[in-house]
Amino acid sequence: MDLDIFVSAHSGEWERLETLLRRGRRLTGEEADELVRLYQRTTTHLSLLQSGAPDPALVGRLTHLVARARSVVAGTRAAGWRDAARFFTAGFPAAVYRSRRWWIPTALLSIAVAALVGWWIAAHPEVRAAIAAPAELREMTRPGGQYETYYSSHPAASFAAQVWTNNAQAAAVCLVLGVFLGVPVLWVLLLNMLNLGVGIGLMASAGRLDVFLGLVIPHGLLELTAVFVAAGTGLRLGWTVVDPGPRTRRAALAEEGRSALGMAVGLAAVLFVSGLIEGFVTPSGLPTWARISIGVLAELLFLAYVWTAGGRAAARGETGDVEAADRGDQLPGVA
Predict the structure, then answer these.
(1) Nearest 5°: phi and psi at 55?
(2) DSSP letter string, 204-237
């Protein structure tokens, strides 16, 4: 592309578009139609320049011009309660539902790893000896030991806030860093499953696995589900780098990335609920069956929410991406 010839051929259109934009709302019907046509043509010109003759100054000028024109053509819209309601009733559950083929296998494999680690530790005294001295192991697993007092070692409100913050950070790492081919996601999963497996193995070796599960299950079902959803979504984002499908890699990453960031907001709300359970229910004086029932109920409500609201929204074409009006323009590739 000869840049000088291209600029000479189209600069008149760009100047005319700038003139119409300066007039703002004082446009006739014919001028409004002209503005739309010039906006579309300038968008195409910008696409051609970016792919064929990337001149930074000219690309910057046209990018600004296209953005101004788009705000006039499409209008601006402020986010409000309606957007939040739409997100939690359609966008978020649809995104979780769409990624189920990633996070369900992730959950099953992760739980299998934790169970295998727990069995290995429980069945091999030499492994337990490598973890800690016998006196330290007894202190951790005895009645009233560290595993039992962990959940009541701090005031419930501050403990719930701390748990929520830590779990939200882990979920965010999975969602955001999944783009690096999913490697950080696998590391976060491995650390979490090793931690769970060590607890299972040590308490099982002390004959107190039922106590450990009674402490973990109330909050752990919902908490781990949120982590698995984040991990599955992060792995899906990483796979998009390898195989973007029929979309361009840039468009695929943009769409899946926006969906993943939205997922972070939704999962923060889910983890907030699990943090409340961990802070107020797990260390409470309720019978074990009652605490477990609360955890199972919370998990079933979340799954029902995903499969009903999310399934219906996904069937309508909802992906968890932002609305079309809020996305950047997809630039055409030909004039």
Answers:
(1) -90, 115
(2) HHTT-HHHHHHHHHHHHHHHHHHHHHHHHHHHHH
Q: Is the pTM of this model over 0.90?
A: no
Predicted local confidence at residue 75, as pLDDT: 60
Looking at residue 223, what is its pLDDT? 93
**Cα(178)–Cα(235) distance, integer angstroms:** 6
Report the alpha-carbon distance of residue 206 to residue 199 in Å, rounded.
11
Q: Are 171 and 222 in contact (CB under 8 A)?
A: no
- Which strand (E) or helix (H) includes residue 34? helix 29-52
Q: Which residues of 128-144 are buried (b: 16+ CB within 10 A; e: fewer)?
A: beeeeeeeebeebbeee
Are the CB atoms for 315 and 238 separated by under 8 Å?
Answer: no
d(CA 104, CA 230): 11
User: What is the identity of the amino acid at 252?
Assistant: A
Strand locations in the chain, DSSP E? none
Q: What is the mean pLDDT of each run of 10 residues along the chain (335 residues)?
A: 81 88 78 86 84 75 85 63 84 92 95 96 94 91 86 69 75 81 88 92 94 92 94 89 81 78 88 91 91 96 96 88 50 41
Dist CA 234 CA 241 (whole Å): 11
328: its two tokens: 């950047």
Residue 123 one-letter amino acid: A
Q: Are 136 and 192 in contact (CB under 8 A)?
A: no
Rg (CA), the chain: 27
At 301, list the tokens: 């409500």
**For residue 146, how far is the Cα from the chain centroid?**
33
Q: Extract the tokens encoding 188.
A: 């976060």
* Residues near 63 by beta carbon (within 8 Å), at least 6 away in sequence: 46
- Rounded distance, CA 114 to CA 193, Å? 5
The burial of 164, by beta-carbon neighbours within 10 Å (0-12 exposed, 13-18 middle, 19 or more buried), is given as buried
What is the Cα–Cα distance from 241 to 101, expressed in whole angstroms?
18
